[in-house]
Amino acid sequence: MTSEMLMGLLPDLLGGLLLGSLFFGGLWLTVRRGLASPRPWLWFGLSSLLRTMLVLAGFWWLAGNDWRGFLAALLGFTAAKVLAAVLSRKSPPYEGQAKEG
């Protein structure tokens, strides 16, 4: 691969990172709000539907018909997942969580 081709995939990589950040940020928010809600099924159901639709549309828009673009977007999405896992270990517990002693 040439450097021009790699630079052409950079927007797909960054787009995948943004999609992953939105997806896992939305999941984090859903868990925090949904567990404290009187209707958690509504939070989890709608959030899952919206986050999935957003990611699928984003991948389709980013990659188009190019498998390399899809792969770059998927790599960015996966990087966001790893980052979310690292950051979630450092976040304070949500309000309804029992503290371990």
Describe the structure.
The protein is an all-alpha fold and 101 residues long. The protein has one domain. Helices cover 79% and strands 0% of the residues. It has three helices and no strands. Helix 1 runs antiparallel to helix 2. The radius of gyration is 17 Å and the shape is elongated. The mean pLDDT is 87.
Features of the shown structure:
101 residues, ATP synthase subunit I, AtpR-like, transmembrane helix, transmembrane
Backbone structural class: mainly alpha
Radius of gyration: 17 Å
| Strand runs, count | 0
Q: Give helix and strand order, one letter per element, not per position.
A: HHH
The number of helical elements comes to 3
Helix content: over 70%
Biggest sheet details: none
Q: N- to C-terminal separation?
A: 54 Å
- Cα shape: elongated
The chain-level mean pLDDT equals 87
Give the strand content. under 5%
Low-confidence blocks of residues = none
Number of domains: 1
Transmembrane segments: 6-29, 41-63, 69-87
InterPro entries: AtpR-like
Keywords: Membrane, Transmembrane, Transmembrane helix
Pfam families: AtpR
State the gist of this model.
This is ATP synthase subunit I. This protein has 101 residues and is mostly helical. It is built from three helices and no strands.
Helix/strand layout:
Elements (H helix, E strand, L loop, with lengths): L2 H32 L5 H24 L3 H24 L11
